[in-house]
Amino acid sequence: MIPLLHDFTGETVLVFGGGPVGARKARRFAEEARVLVVSPEFCDRSFEPSERRHPDAGVEFVRDAPDPEGVEGYVERVGPALVVAATDSAAVNEAAVEAARERGTLVNRADEHGGREAGSVVVPATVRDGSVLAAVATGGRAPALSKHLRERIESDLEGAGAMADLLGELREGFQRTEMPPERRRAAVRAILRDDSVWKHLGTDGAKARRLAEDVAADVPGDTS
Ligand SMILES: C[C@@]1(CC(=O)O)c2cc3[nH]c(cc4nc(cc5[nH]c(cc(n2)[C@H]1CCC(=O)O)[C@@](C)(CC(=O)O)[C@@H]5CCC(=O)O)C(CC(=O)O)=C4CCC(=O)O)c(CCC(=O)O)c3CC(=O)O
Ligand SMILES: NC(=O)C1=CN([C@@H]2O[C@H](COP(=O)(O)OP(=O)(O)OC[C@H]3O[C@@H](n4cnc5c(N)ncnc54)[C@H](O)[C@@H]3O)[C@@H](O)[C@H]2O)C=CC1
């Protein structure tokens, strides 16, 4: 399996099953999507996304226990970008997969592992810092290991979002001044290797930027 990124901003995600697993997936997608959870009960009703990347993002709950035909009806009416099948009923989960497949909609089935058909996607463990993200998966062999590794790499990503913002701004400047591509690459590499830029990113962004500009200015013109 090969990871791809999908922007759910402004999209709807339809989750069947409001147990711990459905709630965890709902929480994840509600960072940027409008999430509709269909379930007789929802174990995470107080949930509010910590980071809302779209005004409509959040979770709505519909109290219902649809049978397989009813599941199809929800998928038809809601027209989601992704269906999450996270009930404790294999028949209901299978109906959600079928309904999604018929509409060409992405589907995440929580009660299975191993190879999948096109359009059937897996949710990895994710670490995010600003616009930077890392995802861990184990081919479904050991999801608890994905969680464990996610916790371990959380600290590695600290400051990465601020660094991405800084480099994004500097790159625009480099492009405006028509800095040759080779020199631009060398400057970016030198900034990334500079401990004092990293150190100041979290505390004094303006200072980090000045340091980075100095590092870039010191990069030799001819790097061939
Ligand atoms: C295939 C996949 C499909 C999918 O859901 O997309 C899937 C399937 C299954 N998970 C099961 C169990 C557990 N899953 C977790 C945790 C997570 N599971 C996640 C993803 C995935 N789980 C996909 C593969 C990802 C990969 O390749 O690694 C994470 C990463 C993302 C997320 O869900 O948000 C999230 C960590 C999030 C985080 O913290 O960062 C824990 C740990 C815990 O709960 O503490 C346990 C209990 C321990 C154990 O059993 O290992 C079972 C057995 C159920 C049973 O026995 O009944 C199945 C079904 C089966 O294996 O058949
Ligand atoms: N992918 C993952 O990370 C994991 C997957 N699982 C699997 O996912 C499934 C769900 O796990 P949990 O949330 O722990 O189970 P759970 O049993 O606590 O929750 C299932 C929820 O589905 C609801 N439900 C039942 N019939 C429904 C229907 N017709 N329509 C809508 N909702 C319905 C139940 O009321 C309950 O709220 C389990 O069957 C298990 O196989 C379990 C652990 C982790």
If you had to describe this structure to a student in words, what would you say it looks like?
The relative contact order is 0.10. The chain starts with 11 loop residues before the first strand and ends in a 6-residue tail after the last helix. Helix 3 links the parallel strand 4 (82-85) and strand 5. The chain is built from 8 helices and 7 strands. With 224 residues, it is α/β, with parallel strands linked by helices. The chain folds into 2 domains: 12-123, Rossmann fold, CATH 3.40.50.720; 160-218. The longest helix has 17 residues, at 160-176. The strands form 2 sheets. The chain has a 5-stranded parallel beta sheet, with helices on both faces. Strands 6-7 form a two-stranded antiparallel sheet. Helix 2 (68-78) packs parallel to helix 3. The structure holds ligand SHN and 1,4-dihydronicotinamide adenine dinucleotide. 1,4-dihydronicotinamide adenine dinucleotide is lined by residues 16-22, 38-41, 65-66, 86-89, 92, 110-111, 143.
Low-confidence stretches: none
Distance between the termini: 38 Å
CATH topology of the largest domain: Rossmann fold
Instruction: Provide the spatial order of strands within the biggest beta sheet.
Output: 3-2-1-4-5
Structural class: alpha/beta
**Which CATH class of the largest domain?**
Alpha Beta
| Strand segment count | 7
Strand content: 15-25%
What does the radius of gyration come to? 22 Å
User: Mean of the pLDDT scores?
Assistant: 93
Range of helix content: 40-55%
List each distinct ligand once: ligand SHN, 1,4-dihydronicotinamide adenine dinucleotide
What global shape is seen?
elongated
Instruction: Figure out the total of helices.
Output: 8
What is the CATH H-level superfamily of the largest domain? NAD(P)-binding Rossmann-like Domain
Biggest sheet, in brief?
5 strands, parallel
For the record, the CATH architecture of the largest domain stands as: 3-Layer(aba) Sandwich
H-E order: EHEEHEHEEEHHHHH
Provide the domain count. 2
